[in-house]
Amino acid sequence: MNRVGYPVLAAFSGILVLTSLNSCNSTEGKADKVAVAEEPEPIEVFALHKGKLSSSLQIPGELLAFRDVDMYAKVSGFVKSIHADVGSEVKEGQLLALAEAPELNAQLASAESKLKSQEALYIASKSNYDRYVDAAKTPGTVAQSMIEQTLAKKESDYAQLQAAKSAYREVADMRKYLEIRAPFSGIISLRNVSTGAYIGPSGKGSELPLFVLTEQKRLRLVIAVPEAYTGYVDLNDEVSFTVKAFPDKKFTGKVKRLAGALDKRLRSERTEVDVINTDRKLLPGMVAEVTIPLPTKNTTFIVPKSAIINSSTGVFIVKVLNQKAEWVPVQKGLEDGDSVEVFGDVKEGDQIMTSATEEVRNGSPVRSVKQRS
Predict the structure, then answer these.
(1) What is the largest CA-CA distance in the chain?
(2) Distance from C-alpha of 272 to C-alpha of 362, rounded to nearest angstrom
């Protein structure tokens, strides 16, 4: 063999040895990586326990007057005098305006005259009947038919008298409507009438109310509680709220009325809160930011938000059982900070993954578990 061929052969043999060594090293490295990838990662779990969670709901509300009434005229007439204006604080029964209607005065005088005339006729027929009755005590002096006739006359006149009294009261009551009085204590928030103006139940004088009377010392705070939270709100629960006019002041009130049905459009329950407003700082029509406390009535399972998986197929928590991950479907309840109520097929003491992700698949093995402190 040629001596020149030995260096070439040695070099070629060295290349083959290096290639083989590199192939072995590469194969061993891949095998190690596969082994590491297949080994499950350690996870942190906690034991499931029951507790009570207190949260709150922030929703807008509207302040309304406890009572608010538009006042119109019952009878036609002209305003003679006005005794209240916008902003006037009035008491129940206080005179607000006085109207005059001459035709009512004439009707009252006519009714009074008829009443007096009918009273005289009744007195006369009653006296006549009484005389016949006294005379009839002596046998044979008065025929029975005369007694019956005078009795019928007396009863007829009495009926006419009662009709005259009713007619008189009707006109007198109509005259009382010329006095516009406050039906309850409150504030005059609007006035649409002046002295000399025509008022009446129909026509130009009835287009707008004479006055708008508003009760301000007690208000209604109206809020719409969403369907999911209606079970947490009861009568006499206290709520707090703020308004833009007094951003640094917190007001309170108590729940006094629940609608008992959901609004079909908003899917919420109308809830009314009574608010004492003796200083009249709060005004009807104000928008309030309401905070409703939502304490749970019973103990429920509470987990951190990190333990919940919100997937496209539902809401789950991951339970570790026999070194395997088990996805458990749950429903969420109240939330408070990092904690949330859950309801599902779980029990006290179940080991739940603290930080659940969709990477931990249902049924996948769990290599090691460390308890959450």
Answers:
(1) 188
(2) 47
Question: d(Cα 237, Cα 6) in Å, to the nearest integer?
Answer: 102
Distance (Å, whole) CA 237 – CA 272: 11
| Full pLDDT tens readout for the chain, 373 residues | 444 443 433 333 443 333 443 444 444 444 444 444 455 567 888 888 888 777 788 999 999 999 999 999 888 889 999 999 999 999 999 999 999 988 888 888 899 999 999 999 999 999 988 888 888 888 877 788 888 888 999 999 999 999 999 999 998 888 888 999 999 999 999 999 899 988 888 666 678 899 999 999 999 999 999 998 888 889 999 999 999 999 999 999 999 999 999 988 889 999 999 999 999 999 999 999 999 988 766 678 888 988 899 988 889 999 988 888 889 999 888 787 788 888 888 888 888 888 888 888 888 887 656 665 5
78-104 burial code (b ≥16 CB/10 A, e <16): bbeebebeeebebeeeeebbbbebeeb
Which residues, in sequence order, are CB contacts of 7 under 8 Å at separation 6+?
Answer: none
Q: CB under 8 Å to 202, separation ≥6 — which residues?
A: none
- The residues near 238 (Cβ < 8 Å, ≥ 6 apart) are 252, 253, 254, 255, 293
Q: Where are the alpha helices (DSSP H) in the chain?
A: 5-38, 102-135, 144-176
